[in-house]
UniProtKB/TrEMBL annotation:
GO terms for cellular component: cytosol. InterPro entries: Aminoacid_DH-like_N_sf (IPR046346), Glu/Leu/Phe/Val/Trp_DH (IPR006095), Glu/Leu/Phe/Val/Trp_DH_C (IPR006096), Glu/Leu/Phe/Val/Trp_DH_dimer (IPR006097), Glu/Leu/Phe/Val_DH_AS (IPR033524), Glu_DH (IPR014362), Glu_Leu_Phe_Val_DH (IPR050724), NAD(P)-bd_dom_sf (IPR036291). The active site is at K127. PANTHER family: NADP-SPECIFIC GLUTAMATE DEHYDROGENASE 1-RELATED (PTHR43571:SF1). This is Glutamate dehydrogenase.
Length: 445
């Protein structure tokens, strides 16, 4: 007889045939927690535990019609997957990118369950978004889309039910337009979104949180191996919210970050990436990385992808899913990489992950390494609830504390189950245990 884990993986593939990223995320989690499932197989089967874990509580799909600057109507598809509310209100970002489909949102929502659990804070797992492409759109078009999106989404969310936030393509501008529309329609000024602007309920340090949190974890990882990140060379992909603040914190901690990338090309700057220039190009001008050379004439710009060929000690993929494949992994290992920590969600393919683990690279998966963003979102929710705002240093200190504890939590879980140094297994088991406990306590719902 095949194992319960194998049966459920097969079932997920059969029932959701067009969703390869969702299969990938489910496979990684279920194979990691197999040791726990095997030990409780009879009870878990009777309770339909894994069936309930892999089926979202609710999936919402809706039409988003909006008018472009030429007066033509455009129609996009909106999604919100409310995956698991065992430990708190659904929480997770909204992705705006042409590649968005239900399978992408489900993979992200599934990952979010375990990530949110690892933060130690009371937040369930959810994710949403749309196939809308903010690139090349005017501010008015972005506003029209965000308002149309929220006109429908506002029926399903709320400060105590489901609290969305940013993700790829959704930053401060989009969150502002969505918050305004929610308030207008629902007549409620409440913490229904996180990543808000500071003038209307946002938290200091939320903008920086994912990137900073990633580096707090990397710092602790190196410490736990009696090592230090000061003086190390780091390679980063992406040039968005996560990448920018990962680069900034890495530099503050004494590492030299020599690359970044966007959806069309990449930069190699051996003297270290100029964060001020990067912010101007990406956050203010919303331009391409081709502009970077104007600020740093000694840097190189290349079309296409290529950051993983640069020799480094630390690799931090911070752009998107499956952006680091087996060939990249071989190159990184051949170049002597020590640690790979995921700032993005599932940026490393399954084969590349296995190659890193087989070759002694310290590999930390996104659900642990990038949890600082959603953790700080939960801190924003706390501040909204008590109608107070904490200082930057207060939030930053809490974030650091969360990431240090999170690292030890996953490290200890891996050791406890006989997988020392396997942070994938550690993260999935540690994240799962709390969700399991809450699901068991609440009965069959
Ligand atoms: P942004 O939209 O701010 O930045 C994404 C960056 O990745 C951009 O530089 C983008 O290029 C680049 N990119 C390259 N290829 C792709 C592609 N195929 N699809 C999308 N982007 C691409 O997003 P974030 O920095 O917020 O998110 C990056 C990753 O981190 C995602 O996986 C996200 O899910 C994850 N994450 C984000 C958190 C957050 O708080 N924001 C929290 C935890 C995880 P270009 O500049 O050309 O658009
Ligand atoms: O992937 C993620 O954790 C996010 N995009 C952040 C989610 C959040 O609610 O802050």
């Amino acid at each position: 007889m095949s194992s319960y884990v194998e049966e459920i993986i097969e079932q997920v593939i059969k029932q959701n045939p067009a969703e390869p990223e969702f299969h990938q995320a489910v496979r990684e989690v279920l194979e990691s927690i197999k040791v726990v499932v095997d030990a409780n197989e009879e009870k878990f089967r009777r309770d339909g535990l894994l069936e309930r874990l892999v089926n979202p509580e609710r999936q919402i799909k809706f039409r988003v019609p909006w008018v472009d600057d030429k007066g033509n109507v455009q129609v996009n598809t909106g999604y919100r997957v409310q995956f698991n509310s065992a430990i708190g209100p659904y929480k997770g970002g909204l992705r705006l990118h042409p590649s968005v489909n239900l399978g992408i949102i489900k993979f992200l929502g599934f990952e979010q369950i375990f990530k949110n659990s690892l933060t130690g804070l009371p937040i369930g797992g959810g994710k949403g978004g749309s196939d809308f492409d903010p690139k090349g759109k005017s501010d008015r078009e972005v506003m029209a889309f965000c308002q149309a999106f929220m006109t429908e989404l506002c029926k399903y969310i709320g400060a105590d039910t489901d609290v969305p936030a940013g993700d790829i393509g959704t930053g401060a501008r989009e969150i502002g337009y969505m918050f305004g529309q929610y308030k207008k329609i629902r007549g409620l000024f409440e913490g229904v979104l996180t990543g808000k602007g500071l003038s209307y309920g946002g938290s200091l340090a939320r903008t920086e949180a994912t990137g900073y949190g990633l580096l707090y974890l990397v710092e602790e990882l190196f410490k736990s191996h009696g090592n230090d990140i000061a003086g190390k060379t780091a390679v980063v992909s992406g040039a968005g919210n996560v990448a920018i603040y990962a680069i900034q914190k890495a530099q503050q901690l004494g590492a030299n970050v020599v690359t970044c990338s966007d959806s069309t090309g990449w930069v190699y700057d051996p003297d270290g990436i100029d964060v001020a220039a990067l912010k101007q190009i990406k956050e203010v001008d919303r331009a391409r990385l081709t502009e970077y050379k104007k600020y740093r004439p000694n840097s190189e710009y290349h079309e296409g992808r290529g950051v993983w060929q640069i020799k480094c000690d630390i690799a931090l993929p911070c752009a998107t899913q499956n952006e680091l494949d087996i060939e990249d992994a071989k190159q990184l290992v051949a170049n002597g990489v020590t640690a790979v920590c995921e700032g993005a969600n599932m940026p490393t393919t399954e084969a590349a992950t296995k190659y890193f683990q087989d070759n002694g690279v310290w590999f930390v998966p996104g659900k642990a390494a990038n949890a600082g963003g959603v953790a700080t979102s939960a801190l924003e929710m706390s501040q909204n609830s008590e109608r107070l705002s904490w200082t930057f240093d207060e939030v930053d200190a809490k974030l650091k504390n969360i990431m240090v504890n999170l690292f030890h939590n996953i490290d200890d879980a891996a050791k406890k189950y006989g997988f020392e140094g396997n942070y994938v297994v550690g993260a999935n088991i540690a994240g799962f245990e709390k969700v399991l406990d809450a699901m068991n306590a609440q009965g069959i719902v």
